[in-house]
Amino acid sequence: MCLAVPGRVLSIDGNMGIIEVGNLKRNVFLHLIPEVSVDNYVLVHAGCAIQKLDEEEAEITLNILKELAESEICR
Length: 75
Known about the structure:
Belongs to the HupF/HypC family. The protein is an alpha+beta fold. It has a single domain (5-74), classed as SH3 type barrels, CATH 2.30.30. It is built from 1 helix and 5 strands, in the order βββββα. It has one helix spanning 55-70; strands spanning 5-13, 16-21, 24-29, 41-45, 48-53. The chain has a 5-stranded antiparallel β-sheet with strand order 3-2-1-4-5, with helices on one face. The radius of gyration is 12 Å and the shape is elongated. The protein starts with a strand and ends in a 5-residue tail after the last helix.
């Protein structure tokens, strides 16, 4: 199974960026969505940003992932 996670773009340097997911910061490739800007939310899979998301959709998904992590299912 594959999982893509939403993150907020903190900085951009060429085709690379730093995104924030919760308290984590990760380097990601941005070459698939060249129109991305700082503070945009992106969907990240395998180290690549694959799609822009609106903030509301990103927050909903992050909340669901947080609930799953805190549930008995993931323990």
